[in-house]
Amino acid sequence: QASVVQIFGDEIVSSAGVNRIKVQQRIFANADEKSALEALLHPHIRRRSQAMIDEYLQSFPYCICVVPLLYETGTAKNYDRVCVVESALDQRVRRCFDRGLSEGVTLAIMQSQATSEQRLSIADDVLYNVKDFLFYHEQIDQLHARYATLFS
């Protein structure tokens, strides 16, 4: 938390901790602050993620990692397979609003992220989160069967 305060100042902290909404607003308005935050967080996230993967793979044949911005960071090469979850733009926008993000921040987020075409270009597998819960889970079951065979 102290390092984050060094980047953004005391105004992003309350008694509840770091105000993530304020941080998001700042990083999508200021590329230098975004880069500073990424430089601070990404090495720690990579180390912790790898430790968790190594531990998990001792007991299971495969591990699914949820990696935001995989295309943007160029780290797809670090994984055996890439599964992209695709949803409609209006769904993604609604989810941002549901998390309390403003229209301006939501637009900045969308503009900073890879397009659907870019994400799909690195995908080995795609899950379509476009219909109901059952449709989505049927795809997950099929993907699990495929991965269980591939990685056993």
Descriptive report:
- It is a single chain.
- This protein has eight helices and four strands.
- It is mainly alpha-helical and 152 residues long.
- The chain folds into two domains: 1-59, no CATH class; 61-152, Rossmann fold (3-Layer(aba) Sandwich).
- The strands form two sheets. The chain has a two-stranded antiparallel ribbon with strand order 1-2. It has a two-stranded parallel sheet with strand order 3-4.
- A hairpin with a 2-residue loop joins strand 1 (13-14) and strand 2.
- The longest helix has 26 residues, at 31-56.
- It is globular, with a radius of gyration of 18 Å.
Which percent band covers the strand fraction? Answer: 5-15%
Give the termini distance in whole angstroms: 41 Å
Q: Which structural class do the helices and strands define?
A: mainly alpha
| SSE series | HEEHHHEHHHEH
- Segments where pLDDT lies below 50 for 5+ residues? none
Shape: globular
Query: How many strands, what sense, and barrel or not for the largest sheet?
Result: 2 strands, antiparallel
Count of alpha/pi helices: 8
CATH fold descriptor of the largest domain: Rossmann fold
- Beta strand count: 4
CATH superfamily caption of the largest domain: P-loop containing nucleotide triphosphate hydrolases
Mean model confidence by pLDDT: 92
Quick overview:
With 152 residues, the chain is mainly α.
Which helices and strands, and how do they pair?
Elements: H1 2-8, E1 13-14, E2 17-18, H2 20-27, H3 31-56, H4 70-73, E3 83-86, H5 89-98, H6 103-112, H7 116-121, E4 125-128, H8 133-150
Parallel strand pairs: 3-4
Antiparallel strand pairs: 1-2
